[in-house]
UniProtKB/TrEMBL annotation:
GO terms for cellular component: cytoplasm. This is GTP cyclohydrolase 1 type 2 homolog. Belongs to the GTP cyclohydrolase I type 2/NIF3 family. Keywords: Metal-binding, Plasmid.
Length: 263
């Protein structure tokens, strides 16, 4: 059976390590590279529930998007059972579950996070967003839509719990997308002539200033905008390793809930 190291090498063919940002931590992060693999679980994040799911399913490997350790927002200094991250890592190690993470390299990859997002939203002939570092994509709709109609389309396509948006009074036709927290590329979307930008984790002042800048902003959520790539990873791994059972996590889902007064 294929080893973790062999699977990592094949994943780097899809999303080369060199395209990851310099602060990022990608590739095989946990477990033995010589571990033979018969079952893989794919998830956006490795949570306690995902770890329990992998154990119950008899998986030797989890392939995830977000790094489980040594990333800028959650550096590993200790591995202790009385801390959330330490408890998770010890659980994975105790059950001989290896971890491979494909993060910003998968964001930038052809066929990666942002191409999957553009495809799910039915953008025509998407390509790299001009003037940025290769993460985001831009494309057109088959016909212009009013913003409320397009938001309904986005919500349904991404299975969102809720959507935050700012209406600049423009119909939607030329659209930029950035899975996850890509708010820093708003200026690139404007410079490229896009009327609408879909991403997540936008801040108050971006919404406040959107009308004045002439761009519709749609914050569809971090999980919904990135989760479509998990289906791509499942399909890719199945095609590369037909003898391995690969499935997408059933336990990991959007964690943000919305309350709206009057509902």
């Amino acid at each position: 059976m294929p080893t973790v190291q062999e699977i990592e090498q094949r994943l780097f063919q899809l999303a080369p390590r060199e395209s990851a940002m310099d602060w990022d931590n990608v590739g095989h992060l946990l477990g033995s590279p010589e571990q033979e693999v018969t079952r893989i679980l794919v998830a956006l994040d490795i949570t306690e529930a995902v770890a329990d799911e992998a154990i119950a399913e008899g998986c030797q490997l989890i392939v995830a998007h977000h790094p489980v350790m040594n990333c800028k927002w959650l550096p590993v200094q200790t591995i202790r059972s009385d801390t959330p991250q330490g408890h998770l890592l010890m659980k994975l190690l105790t059950h001989d579950i290896c971890v491979i993470c494909m993060h910003t390299n998968l964001d930038a990859a052809e066929g990666g996070v942002n191409d999957c997002l553009a495809s799910v939203l039915e953008l025509i002939d998407p390509g790299p967003l001009r003037g940025e570092a290769g993460l985001c994509r831009m494309g057109n709709l088959s016909a212009p839509l009013m913003l409320p109609d397009f938001i309904r389309h986005v919500s349904k396509a991404l299975n969102c719990n809720g959507i935050r948006y700012a209406d600049a009074g423009r119909p939607v036709y030329q659209v930029a997308v950035g899975g996850g927290a890509c708010g820093d590329f708003e200026s690139a979307a404007i410079a490229a002539g896009c009327d609408t930008f879909i991403t997540s984790d936008l801040n108050y002042h971006q919404f406040l200033d959107a009308a004045g800048k002439g761009i519709n902003l749609i914050d569809a959520g971090h999980f919904p905008t990135e989760d479509p790539v998990c289906r791509k990873l499942v399909a890719y791994l199945k095609a590369q390793f037909s003898q391995i059972t690969v499935h997408k996590s059933a336990s990991h889902r959007e964690v943000i809930q919305y309350y709206v007064e009057g509902e």
